[in-house]
Amino acid sequence: MSIPELLTPNFLSGCSTFSSAQELFDKSGFTINSPSDFRAIPDEEWDAYISKNTTYDSWSDMLKMAGSEWARNQLKI
Predict the structure, then answer these.
(1) CA dihedral 40, 44, 49, 52 (to 10 degrees)
(2) In terms of Cα–Cα distance, which of 1, 23, 48 is closest to 63?
(3) Per-residue tens of pLDDT for the chain, all 77 residues
(4) Tell me, what's the pLDDT at 7?
(5) Contact, 42 vs 50, CB < 8 A?
(6) What is the pLDDT of residue 73?
(7) Could you tell me if residue 16 is left (phi over 0), alpha (psi between -120 and 50 degrees) or otherwise beta?
(8) Which of these, 2, 21, 55, 75, could form a disulfide with 15 (CB 3.0-4.6 Å)?
(9) Considering only CA atoms, which of 32, 35, 64, 63 is closest in space to residue 23?
(10) Taking the CA of residue 54 as centre, how many other CA atoms within 13 Å lie in the half-sphere pointing to its CB?
């Protein structure tokens, strides 16, 4: 599953001012044109960005909740 599939506009609107995963990446100040670009970002810096711009303390926390929401939507729970 790709990040844009996980971080849906509905999910992002509930935890940030971003309307898409692409906007989240574009406004980060980091150059992210490929998966390797994303992996090169220091975890601490990315977590600080997520903490400052969303309701989550870390990228990991955000992904866990997005995954839970995605699963509930798939199972129609």
Answers:
(1) 170
(2) 1
(3) 889 999 999 999 999 999 999 999 999 999 999 999 999 999 999 999 999 999 999 999 999 999 999 999 888 86
(4) 96
(5) no
(6) 87
(7) beta
(8) 55
(9) 32
(10) 31
| Residue 70 near residue 10, CB atoms below 8 Å | no
Find where tokens 């906007």 sit: 23
Tell me the two tokens of residue 32: 């992210």
Q: Do residues 49 and 42 lie in contact, with contact meaning Cβ atoms separated by under 8 Å?
A: no
Q: Nearest Cα to 38, choosing from 11, 15, 63?
A: 63
- The H-or-E segment that residue 71 falls in is helix 59-75
3-state secondary structure 19-51: CCHHHHHHCCCCCCCCHHHHHHCCHHHHHHHHH
